[in-house]
Design goal:
Blueprint (H helix, E strand, L loop, with lengths): L1 H18 L9 E4 L3 E5 L3 E3 L2 E4 L8 E4 L5 E3 L4 E4 L3 E9 L2 E10 L16 H4 L8 E6 L8 E8 L2 E6 L6 E7 L8 E6 L8 E4 L5 E7 L2 E3 L2 E3 L3 E6 L5 E2 L6 E4 L3 E2 L2 E2 L1 E8 L4 E8 L2 E10 H5 L4 E9 L10 E11 L5 E8 L12 E7 L2 E8 L8 E8 L4 E7 L6 H6 L9 E8 L2 E9 L7 E9 L2
């Protein structure tokens, strides 16, 4: 013991001696990756603080001389707000560096007076809480199945679509308000997967549902729809023909293959129509934006389609080809306000790596929704990316943080088992609504449908 007590002070002395003349590197100066930038309202740029010597560890603080012109986040992300100039300053260890920012043009405002620009990033970063829950625990005509699309025309008129995998029938359920159950429903046969429906309260006092139609029999139900229908909602009615109402088709093709799984979004305030689709065997989503009134004014054409039906599902009959003739407006004849493609993401950090779960047009922007339910590989996930009409990313892919806390989801009744699958989104009057389907009990035969609400004004 005596030897040990003598050695310890000696070691401390030797360590102190060795450190003499070896001072920690001091920060000599600080610079930024950009000395000046020019932005338009809503545009962002990432600034990076660079120390000299490079080995000095810093945690810079950021400030803007005029947040009304440009703001800066704690990580150095600068966002243009309004016309003018501002100085963005990074500070660390007594040193500073400045970037001069000039902004041209206001950040577009939401609503018909602006162009519909909204930034959801701060809102989507919020954890799940009761204030975010717009509707909870809704059960539909088929309690065992997830919703595929939904919409509402006012506070007491909600509509949800379902496409059970084991049936050739699809369902549109009417729900008289948030957090309520199905009041009545309408049955459609062989229309398709029913993703991304639109509910329209028309000037004639009737409610119309926009949905895909002329679906084809697949091993997991009806899909690969070749048209869009705008049909009147009638409680208790069954439509058996595979299509109904006002019809819209897309005759143009992709390298000789038809566009299928046509899904629609309508912005009635800005009078915009968004159509999304796929091509079998091509890992890309295609998007077209039109003026709604111009599309509605297109002449009707005589159309003949041949679809594959039967052969897979109980009661669906033998596999067969059916030829249908009807009149429709051809979207290929309409002037495109915009067109872009979203290829399948190569890894989990890229847009459309997870399943496409819907899209929405709002003003001059297109919102892309993706996600997947709880699995062995990952928790429940949902992401949003916002594009302009030509496919330029306006808001980069942003995760919906409300799904990160499985225990809280259970506690608030959002899902029984932590599984919440994204299903369709809507934007109305500057408010973002995100749909999710979950389980109300350990049995998947008891599904609930939920909606989160984010006020982005």
């Amino acid at each position: 013991m005596k030897i040990r007590t003598r050695i310890l002070p000696l070691l401390a002395f030797l360590a102190a001696l060795a450190s003499c003349g070896k001072e920690e590197a001091k920060l000599e100066s600080l610079s930024l990756n950009k000395d000046s930038v020019a932005l338009v309202g809503g545009e962002t740029v990432q600034l990076i603080a660079m120390p000299k010597p490079s080995g000095v560890v810093i945690s810079p603080s950021w400030s803007s001389s005029d947040p009304a012109v440009a703001t800066v986040s704690a990580s150095g992300l600068v966002r243009g707000v309004d016309t003018g100039t501002a100085r963005i300053t990074a500070s660390a260890l007594g040193k500073t560096a400045v970037c001069n920012v000039s902004v041209q043009g206001d950040s577009p405002s939401a609503g018909p007076a602006g162009d519909g620009y909204l930034d959801p990033r701060d809102a989507l970063a919020l954890p799940l809480n009761s204030n975010l829950i717009h509707s909870l625990g809704t059960q539909l005509a088929r309690k065992s199945n997830v919703m595929q699309g939904w919409d509402f025309t006012d506070a007491s008129h909600y509509y949800y679509s379902q496409a059970p995998a084991n049936l050739y029938s699809q369902y549109i359920s009417f729900v008289p308000g948030p957090s309520q159950g199905c009041s009545n429903y309408m049955t459609l046969e062989r229309f398709g997967h029913m993703t991304q429906i639109v509910a329209e309260k028309a000037s004639d006092g009737k409610t119309y549902i926009w949905c895909n139609s002329n679906g084809q029999a697949m091993s997991d139900g009806y899909g690969n729809s070749l048209s869009i229908s705008r049909l009147e909602y009638k409680a208790g009615e069954t439509l058996t023909g595979g299509y109904a109402g006002d019809m819209f088709i897309m005759s143009k093709q992709y390298n000789g293959k038809p566009y299928v799984d046509l899904q629609v979004s309508v912005d009635f305030d800005y009078r915009r129509l968004l159509v999304g689709g796929r091509v079998s065997g091509v890992n890309t989503r295609f998007h077209w934006v039109y003026d709604l009134d111009e599309v509605l004014a297109l002449p009707l054409k005589d159309v003949t389609l041949t679809v594959s039906v039967g052969g897979y599902l109980d009661g669906d009959g033998e596999a067969r080809k059916v030829t249908r003739s009807f009149k429709a407006r051809d979207l290929s004849d309409a002037k495109q306000l915009g067109y872009f493609e979203v290829p399948r993401g190569a890894d989990p950090t890229k847009t459309y790596y997870y399943s496409h779960q819907g899209h929405a047009v709002y003003g001059n922007y297109v919102w892309f929704y993706e996600g997947e339910a709880l699995s062995d590989a990952h928790p429940s996930l949902a992401f949003i990316t916002v594009y302009d009409y030509n496919g330029k990313v306006v808001i980069p892919r942003t995760e919906v943080a409300a799904l990160k806390d499985s225990d809280l989801m259970r506690k608030l009744g959002f899902t029984y088992d932590g599984s919440a699958e994204a299903e369709s989104l809507k934007i109305k009057d500057g408010v973002l609504y995100l749909g999710f389907t979950g389980h109300s009990s350990a049995a998947s035969a008891n599904r609930i449908q939920n909606i989160l609400k984010y006020d982005l004004n």
